Amino acid sequence: MKQATALWLLLLALTALTTQASTLAAGMIVPLALAATFIKGQVVIDHFMALRHVAGILRWLVPAWLMLLLGLIAYAFTLNPN
């Protein structure tokens, strides 16, 4: 099996995991979904965007953006809407 196919299957499995978890465990879904999203994002960044072997700022800028975005989403879930 090619590496791209295995990574695609990993992405599908992580998506299925978060989808199923959202119906089963409402309390832990946000951390689980954010962790799965981070893993999926890193796979896409490293392999499908081919930034794994890039030197310089691009190698760290895109994952830093992903971490910032996920951090802001996690923070938004801690806010009290009332």
Question: How are the SSEs ordered, and which strands pair?
Answer:
Elements: H1 3-24, H2 29-48, H3 57-78
Helix pairs in contact: 1-2, 2-3
Descriptive overview:
The structure is a single chain. By secondary structure, the protein is mainly α. The chain has one domain (3-78). 78% of the residues lie in helices and 0% in strands. The chain is flat, with a radius of gyration of 15 Å. The protein starts with a helix and ends with a helix. The model has no long low-confidence stretch (mean pLDDT 87).
The H/E string reads HHH
Largest sheet: none
Distance between the termini: 51 Å
The general outline is flat
Query: Per DSSP, what share of the residues sits in E-state strands of 2 or more residues?
Result: under 5%
Number of individual domains? 1
Structural class: mainly alpha
Poorly predicted regions? none
Report the strand count: 0
Mean pLDDT: 87
As a percent range, the share of helical residues equals: over 70%
| Tally of DSSP helical segments | 3
Rg, Cα atoms, Å? 15 Å
